[in-house]
Amino acid sequence: QPALAEFDSRALRRFLDGLGVTTDAPDGLHVYPASNSALAVQKALWRRARELGAEVRLGVRVTGLWLQARL
Questions:
Q1: For residue 13, what are the CA distances in angstroms to 34, 44, 67?
Q2: Collapsing DSSP states into helix, strand and coil, what is residue 71?
Q3: Cα 20 → chain centroid
Q4: Which residues pair with 33 in a beta bridge?
Q5: Per-residue pLDDT tens for 47-70?
Q6: Can you give the pTM of this predicted structure?
Q7: What sign does the dihedral 41-1-67-8 (CA atoms) show?
Q8: 31 in Cβ contact with 9 (< 8 Å)
Q9: What is the C-alpha separation between 28 and 49, in angstroms, rounded?
């Protein structure tokens, strides 16, 4: 199940807004980037991951995650 599935539409809009992605929810439920480009969301997520120091690897199998508590 996708991680963002835990957000309702309002929480998702707040999250994306915090990343600098303007959104639209024409029916009040489904959330879309106002630019109609998923690339805007992808770029914002990559940028935030880098800011947080996440190590992103493509083409490898995940066997575990190491989470460090933020103090």
A1: 11, 13, 26
A2: coil
A3: 11
A4: 23
A5: 999 999 888 889 999 898 877 776
A6: 0.75
A7: positive
A8: yes
A9: 28
What is the CB-side half-sphere exposure of residue 55 using CA atoms within 13 A? 6
DSSP letter for 22, please: -
Report the DSSP beta bridge partners of residue 32.
24
Nearest one of 9, 6, 17 to 40, comparing CA atoms: 17
Instruction: Answer yes or no: is pLDDT of 43 > 90.
Output: yes
Residue 34 above 70 pLDDT?
yes
Kindly tell me the burial class for residue 31, based on how many C-beta atoms sit within 10 Å of its own C-beta (0-12, 13-18, 19 or more): buried
Structural contact between residues 31 and 4, judged by C-beta atoms closer than 8 angstroms? no
Cα distance between residue 3 and residue 7, in whole Å: 8
Backbone dihedral angles phi then psi of residue 33, each to the nearest 5 degrees: -65, 140
